[in-house]
Design goal:
By secondary structure, the protein is α+β, with helices and mostly antiparallel strands. It contains 3 helices and 8 strands; from the N terminus they run H-E-E-H-E-H-E-E-E-E-E. It holds the Pfam family RVT_1.
Length: 132
Amino acid sequence: MKLVTCGLPQGSILGPLLFLIYINDLPNSLEYSSTRMFANDTTLSVSGKSIQDVEVAINHDLTNVKQWLSANRLSLNLVKTEYLLIGSRYNINNLLAAPNIFVGDTPIKKVKETKAPGVHIDEFLLWGKRLY
């Protein structure tokens, strides 16, 4: 048995409300990214003139997110964390190397498509699930 010093019992009706209030200041820790938050799902978006600019910006903000999470006694599920590089077919297909995106020392998995709440989006910004 272990003494709980913070948090709420799982399933509490206050949990979702307090979580939303608790996480509401996460975007204040970001310098280069914009955020989209829905329930416990957060998406960071960065744009840049080059892959190197995007890589530096997102890695900087992910470091800030990691520090914010640690300060607020939260953790990031690195298994579910992924990134999607969006661009034209020409630019995506002619990349020399994918950016190296990290949270701490852990590399983040690159995907060709992802699911936002109810919508599939691929690297060419096409909507809907496609068969490759």
